[in-house]
Amino acid sequence: MAFIAFTTTIAAYGQQKWHHGRLQVTPDGHYLQYEDGTPFFWLGDTAWELFHRLKKEEIMRYLDNRKAKGFNVIQAVVLAEMDGLRQPNQYGDIPLIDLDPEKPNEAYFKLVDDVITAAYERQLFMGLLPTWGDKVTRMWGTGPAVFTTENAYHYGHWLGNRYKDNQNIVWILGGDRPALHDSVDTRPIWRAMAKGILEATKGKALLSYHISGGEHSTSQQIHTEPWLHMNMMQSGHGSGHDVPVWEWVTRDRALIPTKPTLDSEPNYEDHPVNPWPKWDPKNGYFNDYDIRKQSYRSVFAGACGVTYGHHSIWQFWSEREEKINHADRYWSEALNRPGAFQVGYLRQLIESRPFIDRIPDQTIIADGQGEKGQHIRAFRDREGSYFMAYIPEGRTIEVDLSTLKAGPVRVWWFNPATAETTDLGILNHAGRLQLTSPTQGFGKDWVLVIDHVAKRYPIPTFKHP
């Protein structure tokens, strides 16, 4: 397959190398790593309409922005949601001839080629959705539903063969639809598409599935499918604040066979709260604090990463398009919203310590635990050399250090909104410590970090893109 590379990509990134290979599941089944064993923390961004609504130079701007902020996975859809089969992309090309999955339009897919190449040059993975779910089962949305088990296999095989040599792809089936809903069972179609991808890539592909919002994750419907390597959930936008996503992650982690799991669509920044069936403006919009609470608590509960989203960016709303669901600014104005920086700080924090041996451990919180918006999540590493606790509303808590190695500890606070740190120094303890966050109350979230002194972990210096 011949790629058409962007001149700006070659000039700016041509010296970089893709060192570590493809992604795979860690031996313990909970997290992700590269082929060479290097740990990988998934920090995704939601760019569903990327191929459909942006021009090449806009795509470059977007990818550069996300790379600078620390994102490493871009989730985008080949057959896009917003009438993606009939409404052409910005170059007048539709993806399928005669709405036939067995007749892909070469002109359309050259843009997809270019984007995958541009992402590769920036060390970014593409979380590539072959299609949005309404092309398999309409349920709601524009559709039309065009897939059968036969053409799904052929389409999957064609895609897998086209991109078999691209190491920076994670395949995500689904597209905001359950695989099983009442009497509608689309599992045979997704199974056929996955089979085509896996056969064409000689089993090298890593596959997951993007499910619709609600308390169910892929683990409730397709966990035992052999093609599914990683579970996903969508805590979403329609159930208000503080959806207990940490409970869903805990549930998924306990399943056999063991598979990584993550929230692939938490509440988007600047998305209206509870907009269905009709939005009450009094509900307002989700903000960066909401983003932090859901992202940190899912990760600290044991997810292999998390995906951020902005309401204007997933749809790439601009003067060319009609806004969807009360978007409040153009996508270009949303690139530097606070939450996009702050999830990058989360990645830096997790990667500052050994992180693929993380073990969720709520016994650490001996006193001060709260519910819903005040609920704390904590984890430690397997050998007990450090632990972290996310506290969504700053206050006094008591921590139980019995799962850490005996000896003095270094205690410090991390501000997830600003990446500032507060060092309390080296403390001795008799098994428990009572600690008060630097600020208290609603909107004053903190991460408590306690390191065993013997490990000599430094307090990180955080990058501010």
Automatic annotation (TrEMBL):
<dbReference type="Pfam" id="PF13204">
    <property type="entry name" value="Apiosidase"/>
</dbReference>
<dbReference type="InterPro" id="IPR017853">
    <property type="entry name" value="GH"/>
</dbReference>
<feature type="domain" description="Putative collagen-binding">
    <location>
        <begin position="359"/>
        <end position="451"/>
    </location>
</feature>
<feature type="domain" description="Apiosidase-like catalytic">
    <location>
        <begin position="28"/>
        <end position="356"/>
    </location>
</feature>
<protein>
    <recommendedName>
        <fullName>Collagen-binding domain of a collagenase</fullName>
    </recommendedName>
</protein>
<dbReference type="InterPro" id="IPR024749">
    <property type="entry name" value="Collagen-bd_put"/>
</dbReference>
<dbReference type="InterPro" id="IPR025277">
    <property type="entry name" value="Apiosidase-like_cat_dom"/>
</dbReference>
<dbReference type="Pfam" id="PF12904">
    <property type="entry name" value="Collagen_bind_2"/>
</dbReference>
